Amino acid sequence: MSRNDGSGPSERHAGKNPAKRQSNTDLRVRRTRERLGAALIALIEEKAMHEVTVQEVLDRAKVGRSTFYVHYQDKDDLLLSQMEEGLQMWSNILSAKQEKSRRVAPVAEFFAHIASARKLYRSLVASGRIQAYFDLAQGYFARGIARRLKEIGVPIPDQRELDARAHALAGNLLSLLRWWFDRGAKEAAEDMDDLFHRMVWKGLR
């Protein structure tokens, strides 16, 4: 603890630069959440999800129990948060990069990412959580695809039809992913991207 006689720098500068203090706090929170997420993912790649305990996550992440419960209810809440953060990034990456192509989803990149995370995918399958992941993914990708269709300038009459088409395309994307992955991911991710978008634009004519 630092001492303060009432006229020292702590008091004189207490009200200054609140944005920087908030930024530092946000950065600490983000790093804590990243450590917890990385620890959980590493553990469920090593053993079954039901065998992983919160204490093991804390030990791996070097985070205290009270800090964990500030952010999450339990390990399932942490897993859900990791899924949502990843899907938010993947479903919006083309818009974020302002890509000028006619791609509506980052199929090549997302498929390659899933292929590189085989252990995690298999763990989600074994724990019965893979369908929940795909259900969540469909909502995220539907919103991302709708945004891309608007950016590309596809003439769709109204929001209802846009949402319906985007939802259907997201479902097709995830169905293709499961087909590709369950067969051993034999085709190149770039080829699957080309196939998906040929189906997209043929259907949107």
Question: Which features does this protein show?
Answer:
single chain; 205 residues; mainly alpha; Arc Repressor Mutant, subunit A; 2 domains; 10 helices; globular; disordered N terminus
Quickly count the helices: 10
Provide the domain count: 2
Number of strands: 0
H/E topology pattern: HHHHHHHHHH
Can you give the mean pLDDT? Answer: 90
Instruction: Kindly report how far apart the N and C termini lie.
Output: 68 Å
Share of helix among residues?
over 70%
Oligomer: single chain
Q: Residue ranges: pLDDT <50 for 5 or more in a row?
A: 1-14
- Shape summary: globular
The secondary-structure class comes to: mainly alpha
- Percent strand equals under 5%
Radius of gyration: 22 Å
Largest sheet: none
Question: Your description of this structure?
Answer:
With 205 residues, the protein is an all-alpha fold. The protein has 2 domains: 11-72, Arc Repressor Mutant, subunit A (Orthogonal Bundle), CATH 1.10.10; 83-205. The chain is built from 10 helices and no strands. It has helices at residues 9-12, 18-46, 54-61, 65-71, 75-97, 107-116, 118-126, 130-152, 159-182, 189-203. Helix 2 packs across helix 7. The radius of gyration is 22 Å and the shape is globular.
